[in-house]
């Protein structure tokens, strides 16, 4: 349940006086989500999402996240739009936390993604990348490749209790990634957490993208790698080539990949799997049981990493050059 901070009626009414979106009819905590406290807010002006930013989000990054959502929405990408207050700001303070209100997006995450969902998410990601080229702010990726070894080193000394030999496997993989991580590929704004719970569908069509709190500037193809990892594996751990092909062709219908990006894809997928393996591993070993933060199984990403290690070329993810048939 992601409501870490309770909000009293009086303080909410005071906060709402800064906005021009009508009288509060009701507000209710939202169970989903891990990082922040979210409330469904109904007013005489419509339905909104109220977000209170908790400790795991760096307040200094909020202008980038909110500015990005405003920019993307303003350029036709469907995502929550931060509502502007009477004083012209989008960020305020409520219950001692930075807080903002967003437009409500209809739809829900695809519980069992099909190839058509994968194609749609590929296309939407490419549009995000294309629009993001004009966004003037910059935020370094706080979970980029050089941060992975220190993150691993900060894990408690019990890594091998998750799986025998895991420390050794991670260290050898880090050596591999550090020696070969690509440079010079097209870069720009990436979502960096485009998992199935962050992409909404309505009546089969993609209705919007949420949760920009890992967005940053990094390699565009790294975002594709993250998304392939999140959308194209089956519950039994196998990679679904049809879904991979759909995601990549959806992406390429908007932005064709460069040869160097295609060549780097297997390595970027190993990196993406490592990033989520490590953050999940850290939480697994440090977050107390029964806390609000839902711990996700690091072994899911260990299995994905092992698969990517067997991949020799992007064709094994379903990639075909534009104009060729798969
Ligand atoms: N603009 C929106 N419109 C509709 N629903 C939303 C919107 N923003 C958030 N939600 C709802 O709130 C939930 C949590 O949002 P979000 O994923 O941004 O939270 P979070 O705490 O950053 O979580 P995490 O990073 O763990 O996914 C979503 O799953 C969705 O149900
Ligand atoms: N998407 C992340 C969690 C929060 O962003 C994961 O599945 O590990």
Automatic annotation (TrEMBL):
Coiled-coil annotated spans: none
One annotated GO biological process: threonine biosynthetic process
Recorded metabolic or biological pathway in which this protein acts: Amino-acid biosynthesis; L-threonine biosynthesis; L-threonine from L-aspartate: step 4/5
Catalytic activity entry: L-homoserine + ATP = O-phospho-L-homoserine + ADP + H(+)
Superkingdom in the source lineage: Bacteria
Domain Aminoglycoside phosphotransferase: 27-257
EC number: 2.7.1.39
Pfam short name (any one): APH
Keywords: Amino-acid biosynthesis, ATP-binding, Kinase, Nucleotide-binding, Threonine biosynthesis, Transferase
GO molecular function: ATP binding; homoserine kinase activity
NCBIfam families: PRK05231.1 (NF003558), thrB_alt (TIGR00938)
Similarity comment text for this entry: Belongs to the pseudomonas-type ThrB family.
Record protein name field: Homoserine kinase
Originating organism: Fulvimarina endophytica
